[in-house]
């Protein structure tokens, strides 16, 4: 379609990810803002269960707010050098109630595929995103493949 084959569409998808990354690659402002206010509320509440945040955002603003306030959160990744996505831990409900659980519904900046594993790089580029379209279920029920252009 439109003169593109499968490889052409993979390259187009990569360019779309890069442009999304350019558009949403913002830093958290130093002054109080809705993200820091939400995290402050989470940190200050007494509760029986962890707070769960679901966001369609690709940006890293909520993660920055958690880390700036030193509030623990879990986003499905484990490890420190190249944290890897651990689907088994996502289904567990065994985290301390002081931890927030963060669900990035469409992926996030800094996710990539490394040796057939989704890892978090600590960088801000957009290489593996899940688009909000009719193929979303198929994309989230399998690991994404790294298709370099």
Overview of this structure, please?
The protein has 149 residues and is α/β, with parallel strands linked by helices. The chain is 32% helix and 15% strand. It contains five helices and seven strands, in the order ααβαβββαβββα. It has helices at 6-24, 34-44, 61-68, 87-90, 136-140; strands at 52-55, 73-74, 77-78, 84-85, 100-104, 111-114, 117-120. The strands form three sheets. A three-stranded parallel β-sheet has the order 1-5-2, with no helix packed on it. A two-stranded antiparallel ribbon has the order 3-4. Strand 6 and strand 7 (117-120) form a beta hairpin. The model is unreliable at 132-137 and 139-146 (pLDDT under 50).
Short structural description:
By secondary structure, this protein is an alpha/beta fold.
Task: Give keywords.
single chain; alpha/beta; two-stranded antiparallel sheet; 7 strands; 32% helix; 15% strand; globular
Write down the overall geometry. Answer: globular
Low-confidence stretches: 132-137, 139-146
Strand portion = 15-25%
Distance between the ends: 18 Å
Largest sheet: 3 strands, parallel
Helix content: 25-40%
Elements, N to C (H/E): HHEHEEEHEEEH
The largest beta-sheet arranges its strands as: 1-5-2
Number of helices: 5
């Amino acid at each position: 379609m439109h003169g593109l084959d499968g490889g052409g569409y993979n390259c187009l998808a990569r360019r779309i990810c890069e442009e999304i990354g350019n558009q949403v690659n913002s830093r958290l402002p130093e002054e109080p803002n809705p993200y820091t206010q939400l995290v402050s509320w989470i940190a200050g509440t007494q509760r029986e269960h962890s707070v769960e945040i679901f966001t369609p955002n690709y940006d890293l603003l909520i993660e920055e707010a958690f880390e700036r306030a030193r509030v623990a959160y879990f986003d499905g990744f484990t490890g420190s050098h190249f944290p890897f996505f651990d689907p088994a831990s996502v289904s567990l409900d065994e985290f301390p109630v002081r931890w927030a659980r963060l669900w990035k519904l469409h992926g996030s900046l800094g996710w990539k595929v490394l040796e057939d594993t989704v890892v978090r790089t600590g960088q801000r580029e957009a290489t593996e995103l899940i688009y909000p379209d009719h193929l979303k279920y198929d994309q989230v029920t399998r690991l994404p493949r790294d298709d370099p252009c």
